[in-house]
Design brief:
Structural class: alpha+beta
Distance between the termini: 28 Å
Largest sheet: 6 strands, mixed
Strand order of the largest sheet: 1-5-6-4-3-2
Helix content: 40-55%
Shape: globular
Oligomer: single chain
Number of helices: 8
Length: 222
């Protein structure tokens, strides 16, 4: 599709028909798009690669929005089918396996930093990931205590998982890889983060791996 500038589009949000959540919506020439993933301003090449993979390899109708402080990828959605599309496509009804796996990977990188680099670096990582949650407005991750809880809970047995959407998981895994590489200076953490996924049930593991492999982010976590 297109690479667009902020002045080309209108960005708003609509109320999810079943949940107390807002869905970000981009409007361009009468077409509507929902948020898929966001990237920092320094991640232009990653954003374009993600966008091209979705459009060229997966045949999805997507736009790449270029702003001074970030890049974002949006997928086409029909608002008259919002109730169906919001659950199925925008990710509000994500399988719990996706959330469990993403939290395990987050905790795995955090523990890896603490074990190999020490408590001070682990504290810095905690602040860095908290800033990611704040910047991209992750539900139930707005406070330092909430972030500590996410790094400590058992995702396999938690009574309640955060109500994140697919674009939140895309952003988390993108930023988690960036931070891991910055802290370790290489991608050695990827293998260890993948190892922790074996704590999942076989079904959950297979379900998450299928989703991740279909995503352009899968290349980062192999």
């Amino acid at each position: 599709m297109f690479i667009l500038k902020r002045q080309d589009v209108e960005i708003s949000s609509v109320q999810h028909p079943k949940r107390d959540q807002q869905i970000p919506i981009l409007t361009y020439q009468g077409q509507t798009f929902r948020l898929i993933s966001v990237f920092n301003a320094s991640q232009e090449e990653e954003a374009k690669s993600f966008w091209r993979d979705l459009t060229d390899n997966q045949g999805k109708a997507c736009v790449l929005l270029e702003e001074p402080e970030r890049f974002s990828v949006w997928g086409k959605i029909r608002l008259d089918q919002l109730e169906h599309d919001a659950d199925a496509a925008a990710g509000n009804a994500l399988p719990p396996a996706y959330l469990r796996a993403s939290l395990l990977m987050l905790q795995g990188v955090y523990i890896d930093i603490e074990d190999l680099l020490g408590g001070r670096q682990a504290s810095l990582f905690q602040k860095d990931i908290a800033e990611v949650f704040k910047q991209w407005r992750f539900p139930q991750a707005e406070t330092p205590d909430a972030v500590k809880n996410l790094l400590a809970i058992d995702p396999l047995n938690a009574a309640q998982l955060p109500p994140w959407q697919e674009h939140h998981l895309n952003t988390l895994l993108q930023e988690l890889h960036r931070l891991g590489k910055a802290y370790f200076g290489n991608t050695s953490f990827v293998e260890r983060a993948n190892d922790i996924l074996h704590d999942l049930s076989d079904n959950d593991h297979a379900q998450f791996q299928t989703w991740l492999n279909r995503s352009p982010l899968g290349k980062l976590w192999r």
